[in-house]
């Protein structure tokens, strides 16, 4: 027959000390009640008529003429780019083992040679990387 073995778990000796520390804390905890239904900080509510007028103006602004003009300008630009044809020689990219969507080949250098005439830097980038406020080439931002 198998005998069952019972182990007696003893309480640690420091239990009383920790419980006393919890009861008599030198730093009482501040309790903050949070109501999820309560609104957070926001501007004061408008009267109903003014709120309706504000929402109507917001809807009109979202479909304003400025957006329509911007979209029309972009459509014209897209048509011009499509008519111009591809700016990247796909056969040359394939010969180098690069994918046709690789766009770094259309970076035009700001200077010729190895030395930047403006900063005197030798072996640096051919384009000013901080021209637009971040270190980017063809809309791809890189870290320092």
TrEMBL record:
GO terms for cellular component: mitochondrion. It holds the Pfam family DUF1674. One of its GO terms (biological process) is mitochondrial respiratory chain complex II assembly. InterPro entries: SDHF4. Residues 110-129 are annotated as: Disordered. Belongs to the SDHAF4 family. This is Succinate dehydrogenase assembly factor 4, mitochondrial. It comes from Magnusiomyces paraingens.
